[in-house]
Design brief:
4 helices; Phytocyanin domain-containing protein; 5-stranded mixed β-sheet; electron transfer activity; Phytocyanin_dom; 2 domains; elongated; Phytocyanin-like; signal; 28% helix; Immunoglobulin-like; 10 strands
Amino acid sequence: MEDPPLLQRCYFSSFLLVLVIQGLLVNGARSEVYTVGDSEGWDTGIDYGVWSHNYNFSTGDILIFKYVKSQHNVYEVTESTYRSCNSSSGVLDAYDTGSDRVTLKEARKHWFICDVGGHCLGGMRFGIDVSRGSTNGSPHGGAPSLQAQPPPSTPDGPDTNNNGSSKLKSAGPRGWTLLFCIVAWVRLVDLFPK
């Protein structure tokens, strides 16, 4: 025997509610991907303290380091190694492919340097605060820098840094799914007799 139409609508309504809740939870947990130095990449002559101030970093986010393999490397280090630029101890991870992906797995301060020929002492280093949960990539107060912090971008537009590159934010497919579920929910409510 088939369920009455009103009961079928209740099942469907419950199903849509679960989808909406799932969409809200999943959409809030998305990760961001950041290219260190934006279009300039990982190289000498860039103030990475200023670059890091352009973004909020969160667990699950990914840093991409792009550089000429024979000229640079990336070390994740302790704060004391970061400050001294002496990598004889305090190296947590080392990367040297020229296109390294570093997933930020822990909510803590992360420190990165280039250990090639005085590059760290020349400024090829930065530290970032990584928080728990998801962010929208908006500006924050990251690693200390002697330079003035650039003005924050508008929340509705792209984030633009000093060299003109930008990172456009989008809700992506999960956002569209959430929107569809909300519209379907509203239409379903209209079906119920008043």
